[in-house]
Amino acid sequence: xxxxxxxxxxxxxxxxxxxxxxxxxxxxxxxxxxxxxxxxxxxxxxxxxxxxxxxxxxxxxxxxxxxxxxxxxxxxxxxxxxxxxxxxxxxxxxxxxxxxxxxxxxxxxxxxxxxxxxxxxxxxxxxxxxxxxxxxxxxxxxxxxxxxxxxxxxxxxxxxxxxxxxxxxxxxxxxxxxxxxxxxxxxxxxxxxxxxxxxxxxxxxxxxxxxxxxxxxxxxxxxxxxxxxxxxxxxxxxxxxxxxxxxxxxxxxxxxxxxxxxxxxxxxxxxxxxxxxxxxxxxxxxxxxxxxxxxxxxxxxxxxxxxxxxxxxxxxxxxxxxxxxxxxxxxxxxxxxxxxxxxxxxxxxxxxxxxxxxxxxx
Length: 362
Known about the structure:
This protein is of the alpha/beta class. Helix content is 31%, strand content 23%.
Protein backbone atom coordinates (compact mmCIF):
# COMPACT_ATOMS: atom_id res chain seq x y z
CA UNK A 1 0.00 0.00 0.00
CA UNK A 2 1.37 3.39 -1.01
CA UNK A 3 1.08 5.96 1.75
CA UNK A 4 -1.87 8.26 1.04
CA UNK A 5 -1.30 11.77 2.39
CA UNK A 6 -4.92 12.69 1.72
CA UNK A 7 -6.40 9.88 3.82
CA UNK A 8 -5.49 9.59 7.48
CA UNK A 9 -7.11 6.17 7.78
CA UNK A 10 -4.46 4.68 5.47
CA UNK A 11 -1.55 6.89 6.48
CA UNK A 12 1.34 4.44 7.01
CA UNK A 13 4.74 6.12 7.37
CA UNK A 14 7.87 4.33 6.26
CA UNK A 15 11.14 4.97 8.05
CA UNK A 16 14.72 3.84 8.25
CA UNK A 17 15.33 0.13 8.68
CA UNK A 18 17.07 -0.34 12.03
CA UNK A 19 16.80 -3.93 13.16
CA UNK A 20 16.98 -4.73 16.86
CA UNK A 21 16.12 -8.42 16.53
CA UNK A 22 17.90 -11.18 14.69
CA UNK A 23 16.36 -13.44 12.06
CA UNK A 24 13.50 -15.43 13.55
CA UNK A 25 13.83 -13.74 16.96
CA UNK A 26 10.57 -11.76 16.84
CA UNK A 27 7.85 -13.36 14.71
CA UNK A 28 4.52 -11.52 14.91
CA UNK A 29 1.06 -11.63 13.38
CA UNK A 30 -1.74 -9.25 12.44
CA UNK A 31 -5.34 -9.99 13.47
CA UNK A 32 -8.11 -7.55 12.53
CA UNK A 33 -7.76 -5.17 9.57
CA UNK A 34 -10.70 -2.82 10.16
CA UNK A 35 -8.53 0.31 10.26
CA UNK A 36 -5.68 1.18 7.91
CA UNK A 37 -3.38 1.98 10.83
CA UNK A 38 -2.48 -1.72 10.79
CA UNK A 39 -0.21 -0.92 7.85
CA UNK A 40 1.78 1.65 9.81
CA UNK A 41 1.97 -0.67 12.81
CA UNK A 42 3.33 -3.52 10.73
CA UNK A 43 5.70 -1.22 8.81
CA UNK A 44 7.23 -0.03 12.07
CA UNK A 45 7.63 -3.50 13.56
CA UNK A 46 9.06 -4.92 10.34
CA UNK A 47 11.59 -2.10 9.92
CA UNK A 48 12.77 -2.78 13.47
CA UNK A 49 13.42 -6.46 12.80
CA UNK A 50 10.05 -8.10 13.40
CA UNK A 51 9.05 -10.95 11.10
CA UNK A 52 5.41 -10.75 9.99
CA UNK A 53 4.34 -14.38 9.59
CA UNK A 54 0.53 -14.41 9.64
CA UNK A 55 -2.48 -12.26 8.91
CA UNK A 56 -6.10 -12.99 9.78
CA UNK A 57 -9.35 -11.13 9.21
CA UNK A 58 -12.85 -12.55 8.62
CA UNK A 59 -12.98 -10.51 5.38
CA UNK A 60 -10.81 -12.25 2.73
CA UNK A 61 -10.72 -9.09 0.60
CA UNK A 62 -9.02 -7.17 3.43
CA UNK A 63 -6.51 -10.00 3.73
CA UNK A 64 -5.75 -9.93 0.00
CA UNK A 65 -5.17 -6.17 0.10
CA UNK A 66 -2.91 -6.56 3.14
CA UNK A 67 -0.84 -9.25 1.43
CA UNK A 68 -0.16 -6.92 -1.50
CA UNK A 69 1.82 -4.76 0.93
CA UNK A 70 3.10 -7.63 3.08
CA UNK A 71 3.39 -10.72 0.84
CA UNK A 72 5.44 -12.48 3.53
CA UNK A 73 2.33 -12.74 5.74
CA UNK A 74 0.55 -16.06 5.31
CA UNK A 75 -3.24 -15.94 5.49
CA UNK A 76 -4.30 -17.85 8.61
CA UNK A 77 -7.53 -19.83 8.51
CA UNK A 78 -8.63 -18.46 11.88
CA UNK A 79 -7.57 -16.41 14.89
CA UNK A 80 -6.99 -19.68 16.72
CA UNK A 81 -4.38 -20.83 14.20
CA UNK A 82 -2.27 -17.81 15.15
CA UNK A 83 -2.86 -18.02 18.89
CA UNK A 84 -1.85 -21.68 19.04
CA UNK A 85 1.48 -21.03 17.30
CA UNK A 86 3.96 -20.79 20.18
CA UNK A 87 6.58 -19.09 18.00
CA UNK A 88 4.53 -15.88 17.64
CA UNK A 89 5.77 -13.24 20.10
CA UNK A 90 3.19 -10.51 19.43
CA UNK A 91 -0.17 -9.90 17.80
CA UNK A 92 -0.91 -6.49 16.26
CA UNK A 93 -4.53 -5.49 15.72
CA UNK A 94 -6.63 -2.70 14.23
CA UNK A 95 -9.97 -4.43 14.57
CA UNK A 96 -13.08 -2.41 15.52
CA UNK A 97 -12.14 -0.47 18.68
CA UNK A 98 -14.89 -1.98 20.85
CA UNK A 99 -13.42 -5.44 20.30
CA UNK A 100 -9.73 -4.62 20.74
CA UNK A 101 -9.60 -5.18 24.52
CA UNK A 102 -11.19 -8.65 24.39
CA UNK A 103 -8.77 -9.69 21.68
CA UNK A 104 -5.90 -8.43 23.83
CA UNK A 105 -7.04 -10.55 26.76
CA UNK A 106 -7.11 -13.64 24.52
CA UNK A 107 -3.69 -12.83 23.11
CA UNK A 108 -2.00 -12.41 26.50
CA UNK A 109 -3.74 -15.50 27.83
CA UNK A 110 -1.98 -17.46 25.09
CA UNK A 111 1.45 -16.13 26.04
CA UNK A 112 1.84 -13.39 23.42
CA UNK A 113 2.36 -9.64 23.65
CA UNK A 114 -0.29 -7.34 22.20
CA UNK A 115 -0.09 -4.16 20.11
CA UNK A 116 -3.42 -2.41 19.57
CA UNK A 117 -4.32 0.49 17.35
CA UNK A 118 -5.71 3.50 19.19
CA UNK A 119 -8.09 3.80 20.90
CA UNK A 120 -6.98 0.74 22.78
CA UNK A 121 -10.10 0.85 24.96
CA UNK A 122 -13.54 2.39 24.90
CA UNK A 123 -14.58 1.74 28.52
CA UNK A 124 -12.76 2.06 31.83
CA UNK A 125 -13.62 -1.46 32.97
CA UNK A 126 -11.77 -2.82 29.93
CA UNK A 127 -8.58 -1.14 31.16
CA UNK A 128 -8.90 -2.73 34.60
CA UNK A 129 -9.14 -6.17 33.03
CA UNK A 130 -6.09 -5.42 30.89
CA UNK A 131 -4.13 -4.26 33.96
CA UNK A 132 -4.92 -7.52 35.72
CA UNK A 133 -3.92 -9.61 32.71
CA UNK A 134 -0.61 -7.75 32.29
CA UNK A 135 0.14 -8.26 35.99
CA UNK A 136 -0.80 -11.93 35.73
CA UNK A 137 1.27 -12.68 32.62
CA UNK A 138 4.13 -10.17 32.70
CA UNK A 139 3.52 -9.51 28.99
CA UNK A 140 3.31 -6.16 27.21
CA UNK A 141 0.11 -4.40 26.09
CA UNK A 142 1.00 -1.61 23.68
CA UNK A 143 -1.09 1.03 21.92
CA UNK A 144 -0.20 2.67 18.61
CA UNK A 145 -0.29 6.40 19.42
CA UNK A 146 0.87 7.13 15.89
CA UNK A 147 0.67 10.93 15.99
CA UNK A 148 3.67 10.99 18.31
CA UNK A 149 5.36 7.63 17.75
CA UNK A 150 5.25 7.70 13.94
CA UNK A 151 6.01 11.38 13.31
CA UNK A 152 9.68 12.37 13.20
CA UNK A 153 9.13 15.98 14.26
CA UNK A 154 7.16 14.77 17.28
CA UNK A 155 9.98 12.38 18.19
CA UNK A 156 12.53 15.18 17.85
CA UNK A 157 10.46 17.47 20.06
CA UNK A 158 10.66 14.87 22.81
CA UNK A 159 14.44 14.72 22.43
CA UNK A 160 14.71 18.51 22.70
CA UNK A 161 12.57 18.59 25.83
CA UNK A 162 14.64 15.85 27.48
CA UNK A 163 17.77 17.90 26.81
CA UNK A 164 16.20 20.92 28.53
CA UNK A 165 15.95 23.02 25.36
CA UNK A 166 12.87 24.91 26.57
CA UNK A 167 13.18 24.42 30.32
CA UNK A 168 10.23 23.05 32.27
CA UNK A 169 7.12 22.36 30.18
CA UNK A 170 4.20 24.31 31.63
CA UNK A 171 1.56 24.29 28.89
CA UNK A 172 0.73 22.32 25.72
CA UNK A 173 -1.78 23.02 22.95
CA UNK A 174 -2.66 20.24 20.52
CA UNK A 175 -4.81 20.24 17.41
CA UNK A 176 -5.87 17.06 15.65
CA UNK A 177 -8.04 17.86 12.64
CA UNK A 178 -8.90 14.96 10.32
CA UNK A 179 -10.52 14.57 6.91
CA UNK A 180 -13.80 12.70 7.30
CA UNK A 181 -13.92 10.97 3.87
CA UNK A 182 -17.31 9.63 4.87
CA UNK A 183 -17.82 7.79 1.60
CA UNK A 184 -14.92 5.48 2.50
CA UNK A 185 -15.88 4.85 6.13
CA UNK A 186 -17.60 1.71 7.48
CA UNK A 187 -20.85 1.95 9.43
CA UNK A 188 -19.19 1.46 12.82
CA UNK A 189 -17.16 4.64 12.27
CA UNK A 190 -20.29 6.74 12.92
CA UNK A 191 -21.43 5.06 16.15
CA UNK A 192 -19.63 5.96 19.43
CA UNK A 193 -20.61 2.57 20.85
CA UNK A 194 -17.98 1.09 18.53
CA UNK A 195 -15.25 3.77 18.44
CA UNK A 196 -15.70 5.34 21.87
CA UNK A 197 -16.48 8.92 20.82
CA UNK A 198 -14.22 11.57 19.34
CA UNK A 199 -12.28 12.38 22.54
CA UNK A 200 -11.68 8.70 23.21
CA UNK A 201 -10.68 8.02 19.62
CA UNK A 202 -8.54 10.74 18.06
CA UNK A 203 -8.29 12.53 21.39
CA UNK A 204 -6.17 9.62 22.62
CA UNK A 205 -3.25 10.88 20.53
CA UNK A 206 -3.50 14.29 22.12
CA UNK A 207 -3.67 13.17 25.74
CA UNK A 208 -0.80 10.70 25.36
CA UNK A 209 1.52 13.30 23.90
CA UNK A 210 0.64 15.78 26.65
CA UNK A 211 1.59 13.31 29.38
CA UNK A 212 4.81 12.53 27.51
CA UNK A 213 5.94 16.07 26.73
CA UNK A 214 4.99 17.38 30.17
CA UNK A 215 6.69 14.47 31.93
CA UNK A 216 3.46 13.82 33.85
CA UNK A 217 2.30 10.59 35.43
CA UNK A 218 -1.33 11.64 35.89
CA UNK A 219 -3.77 14.44 35.05
CA UNK A 220 -7.28 15.70 35.77
CA UNK A 221 -9.89 16.45 33.12
CA UNK A 222 -11.11 19.96 33.99
CA UNK A 223 -13.54 20.41 31.12
CA UNK A 224 -14.52 18.70 27.88
CA UNK A 225 -17.19 19.01 25.24
CA UNK A 226 -18.32 17.34 22.01
CA UNK A 227 -20.68 18.18 19.17
CA UNK A 228 -22.01 17.09 15.81
CA UNK A 229 -22.05 20.24 13.70
CA UNK A 230 -22.02 18.96 10.17
CA UNK A 231 -22.97 15.29 9.86
CA UNK A 232 -26.66 15.27 10.74
CA UNK A 233 -27.20 12.19 8.55
CA UNK A 234 -25.26 10.34 11.26
CA UNK A 235 -27.01 11.54 14.46
CA UNK A 236 -24.75 9.61 16.85
CA UNK A 237 -21.52 10.84 15.27
CA UNK A 238 -19.29 13.48 16.88
CA UNK A 239 -17.32 15.72 14.53
CA UNK A 240 -15.87 18.12 17.13
CA UNK A 241 -14.39 17.79 20.59
CA UNK A 242 -12.07 19.65 22.92
CA UNK A 243 -10.81 19.41 26.48
CA UNK A 244 -8.70 21.06 29.17
CA UNK A 245 -6.47 18.99 31.48
CA UNK A 246 -4.15 19.73 34.39
CA UNK A 247 -1.26 17.37 35.13
CA UNK A 248 -0.01 16.20 38.51
CA UNK A 249 3.16 18.28 38.02
CA UNK A 250 1.27 21.52 37.32
CA UNK A 251 1.45 21.54 33.52
CA UNK A 252 -1.80 22.33 31.71
CA UNK A 253 -3.20 21.31 28.34
CA UNK A 254 -5.82 22.31 25.80
CA UNK A 255 -6.60 20.21 22.75
CA UNK A 256 -9.09 20.21 19.91
CA UNK A 257 -9.97 17.38 17.54
CA UNK A 258 -12.37 17.50 14.60
CA UNK A 259 -13.41 16.03 11.26
CA UNK A 260 -13.35 19.31 9.31
CA UNK A 261 -10.19 19.16 7.16
CA UNK A 262 -11.18 21.00 3.95
CA UNK A 263 -10.67 19.38 0.56
CA UNK A 264 -8.15 22.05 -0.40
CA UNK A 265 -5.57 20.96 2.18
CA UNK A 266 -2.75 18.89 0.71
CA UNK A 267 -2.89 16.27 3.43
CA UNK A 268 -5.48 14.60 5.67
CA UNK A 269 -5.05 16.95 8.62
CA UNK A 270 -3.00 19.94 9.74
CA UNK A 271 -1.97 18.42 13.06
CA UNK A 272 0.05 20.74 15.28
CA UNK A 273 1.46 20.92 18.79
CA UNK A 274 2.64 24.04 20.64
CA UNK A 275 4.75 23.32 23.72
CA UNK A 276 5.51 26.18 26.10
CA UNK A 277 8.44 25.93 28.48
CA UNK A 278 9.95 28.27 31.03
CA UNK A 279 12.90 28.98 28.70
CA UNK A 280 11.40 28.69 25.22
CA UNK A 281 8.75 27.06 23.08
CA UNK A 282 8.37 24.51 20.31
CA UNK A 283 5.81 24.32 17.52
CA UNK A 284 5.40 21.09 15.56
CA UNK A 285 3.66 21.14 12.19
CA UNK A 286 3.35 17.41 11.74
CA UNK A 287 1.96 16.80 8.26
CA UNK A 288 2.22 20.04 6.28
CA UNK A 289 3.38 23.65 6.52
CA UNK A 290 0.39 25.23 4.81
CA UNK A 291 0.96 27.44 1.74
CA UNK A 292 4.71 27.15 2.29
CA UNK A 293 6.02 23.58 2.18
CA UNK A 294 3.94 20.46 1.40
CA UNK A 295 6.25 18.31 3.50
CA UNK A 296 5.42 17.51 7.06
CA UNK A 297 7.79 17.13 10.02
CA UNK A 298 8.41 20.85 10.40
CA UNK A 299 9.57 21.94 13.84
CA UNK A 300 10.10 25.49 15.07
CA UNK A 301 12.13 26.20 18.19
CA UNK A 302 12.51 29.53 19.97
CA UNK A 303 14.93 29.55 22.88
CA UNK A 304 17.47 31.85 24.53
CA UNK A 305 19.74 31.62 21.49
CA UNK A 306 17.17 32.62 18.87
CA UNK A 307 14.72 31.24 16.34
CA UNK A 308 15.33 27.89 14.65
CA UNK A 309 13.57 25.80 12.03
CA UNK A 310 14.05 22.08 11.35
CA UNK A 311 12.68 19.98 8.49
CA UNK A 312 13.03 16.46 9.83
CA UNK A 313 11.76 14.03 7.20
CA UNK A 314 14.08 11.03 7.10
CA UNK A 315 16.40 12.46 9.75
CA UNK A 316 15.13 11.07 13.06
CA UNK A 317 13.47 7.72 12.49
CA UNK A 318 10.94 5.98 14.70
CA UNK A 319 12.75 4.49 17.72
CA UNK A 320 9.58 3.33 19.46
CA UNK A 321 9.22 0.15 17.41
CA UNK A 322 12.69 -1.19 18.10
CA UNK A 323 12.38 -0.28 21.76
CA UNK A 324 8.98 -1.97 21.96
CA UNK A 325 10.30 -5.17 20.38
CA UNK A 326 13.17 -5.27 22.89
CA UNK A 327 10.73 -4.58 25.73
CA UNK A 328 8.70 -7.60 24.66
CA UNK A 329 11.80 -9.78 24.43
CA UNK A 330 13.65 -8.47 27.49
CA UNK A 331 10.84 -7.59 29.89
CA UNK A 332 11.88 -3.93 29.99
CA UNK A 333 9.93 -0.66 29.62
CA UNK A 334 12.12 1.52 27.43
CA UNK A 335 9.59 2.35 24.69
CA UNK A 336 6.76 3.38 26.98
CA UNK A 337 5.80 2.29 30.46
CA UNK A 338 2.72 0.17 30.87
CA UNK A 339 1.35 2.66 33.38
CA UNK A 340 1.75 5.52 30.88
CA UNK A 341 -0.18 3.53 28.28
CA UNK A 342 -3.06 2.73 30.59
CA UNK A 343 -3.15 6.25 32.06
CA UNK A 344 -3.41 7.88 28.63
CA UNK A 345 -6.16 5.45 27.67
CA UNK A 346 -8.14 6.04 30.85
CA UNK A 347 -7.90 9.84 30.62
CA UNK A 348 -9.30 9.94 27.10
CA UNK A 349 -12.26 7.82 28.22
CA UNK A 350 -12.73 10.09 31.24
CA UNK A 351 -12.69 13.16 28.98
CA UNK A 352 -15.31 11.50 26.79
CA UNK A 353 -17.53 10.51 29.70
CA UNK A 354 -17.40 13.98 31.26
CA UNK A 355 -18.00 15.84 27.99
CA UNK A 356 -20.77 18.39 27.68
CA UNK A 357 -22.74 17.77 24.50
CA UNK A 358 -23.39 20.97 22.56
CA UNK A 359 -27.10 20.63 21.87
CA UNK A 360 -27.52 23.54 19.45
CA UNK A 361 -24.75 22.56 17.08
CA UNK A 362 -26.87 23.46 14.05
